[in-house]
Amino acid sequence: MIAERDPRAATVGVIGLGYVGLPLAVEFGKVVDVIGFDINEGRVTEIRGGRDHTLEVDSEALISADRLTVITDPMGLAQADVYIVTTPTPIDDAKQPDLGPLLSATRTVAGALSPGDIVIYESTVYPGATEEQCVPVLEEYSGLRFNEGFFVGYSPERINPGDKHRRVTNIVKVTSGSTPETADFVDSLYRLIVKAGTHRASSIKVAEAAKVIENTQRDVNIALINELAVLFERLGIDTEEVLLAAGSKWNFLPFRPGLVGGHCIGVDPYYLTHKAQQVGYHPELILAGRRLNDSMGGYVASQLVKAMTKRGIAVQGARVLVLGLAFKENTPDLRNSRVIDIITELRQYDVHVDVLDPWVEPDEALSEYQISLVTEPQLGAYQGIILAVAHREFTDLGGGAIRKWGAEAGHVVYDLKYALDPSASDLRL
Q1: Cα torsion 213, 218, 221, 226: sign
Q2: Rounded to whole angstroms, how far apart are CA atoms 129 and 106?
Q3: What b/e sequence results for 196-223 when a residue is b if at least 16 CB atoms lie within 10 Å of its CB, and e otherwise?
Q4: Which residues of 86-114 are buried (b: 16+ CB within 10 A; e: fewer)?
Q5: Are 387 and 417 in contact (CB under 8 A)?
Q6: Annotated catalytic residue within 207, 264, 300, 325
Q7: Distance CA 166, CA 366 (A)
Q8: CB 386 within 8 A of CB 414
Q9: Per-residue pLDDT tens for 19-73?
């Protein structure tokens, strides 16, 4: 009986050892036996060697995780009795949910299920997806019946890549289960590692909805500020000065304009709008926010071209240096980076673009975006410089050093992140 099970006696299988799964597996490995599974043999090899290229877990923590076993053979998962699925949930080229990785992981779990096992999903989905999409697959491939032979929970991830302060253990965890007893067990299991506490949702659908609106809310708010930035540029007003002035009011929300990428904010709203349209509702505000945020890369490129033209700098054949390719500062995470939109748009003007990012693995940049990163940009060679990602290496350099990459005959520095002193840049978003 689930109600009688001690979560400390569980053997947890974590499926997917990426940005979400590995930190979770390491933390659980401090209190229970954990089997970490990933289909990427290279990933498993590096973890066994005490290295995490995502930089979410340091080598010392990996080496000391003696209750964590990492495998690529799905047969080894049969030793677990609780499974946590952390695979990515991206969107396809048509901006529709791509549940392929999630359902593939579900089939893997189903092949290892024994009567009484519990499957917990952390992947971001639309409300209803766990029970409508995943549960039938578990039933089909395991031969067990839902809420009789196996049980399901949902506890959405809240990982913030690169954030060394907000970690798995000190972020409140939303939990839920397919039966009251399952919900109790799932909540108790996460309380073993989450010192900040948990919030138990009344149903799996509520937990799914809570996750997907967290990032949808941020997306819509950033879209508003991006639209204001476009407006203020036409009015000749500095957006940052306006936001600082408005921010003197106690309840003004401190959002800033910028590119909206990554595995969450630029993706999750499409899961919600997909479900909304399935039930006959057209979500105008959410989709409008998405369209506006997705257009910002093109806007940035056009603003740089306009500024260069005004200064008499020939655009065709010009060289532009883009500082940063990762989707956010101080992380190597390339997922859904919208910096690529700037690069793509500039190339339409026959501009030669070099990209510098000390955090990103060159092989990953080449594989993901067909971009060969530069390591030592030529001094005095660029007619345009865009600070796209505020990595500490760039902010530590400062505007003076960054300008040395600019051509003496004339260049434009565009600071998207307000990372430089206003006098050190020619444009700010």
Answers
A1: negative
A2: 12
A3: eebebbeebbebbbbbbbbbbebbbebb
A4: bbbbbbeeeeebbbebbeebbebbbebbe
A5: yes
A6: 264
A7: 31
A8: yes
A9: 999 999 999 999 999 999 999 999 999 999 999 998 889 998 888 888 999 999 9
Q: At 154, list the tokens.
A: 């949902």
- Measured at the CA of 260, the angle between CA 197 and CA 279, to 5 degrees, comes to 75
> Is there a catalytic annotation at residue 134?
no
The whole-number pLDDT of residue 3 equals 67
Alpha helices in 192-338 (DSSP H): 204-235, 239-246, 268-278, 284-294, 296-310
Residues linked to residue 13 through DSSP beta bridges, in sequence order = 35, 83
Number of helical H runs and strand E runs in the chain: 15, 13
Residue 212: pLDDT band by 50, 70, 90 thresholds?
very high
Q: Which among 355, 359, 357 is positioned nearest to 347, based on CA atoms?
A: 355
- How many Å apart are CA 79 and CA 70, to the nearest integer? 13
pTM higher than the cut 0.90? yes
**102's tokens:** 């999630």
> For the residues of 69-81, what is the DSSP string, one character each?
EEES-GGGGGG-S
Give the model confidence (pLDDT) of 83-137 as tens digits.
999 999 999 989 999 999 999 999 999 999 999 999 999 999 999 999 999 999 9
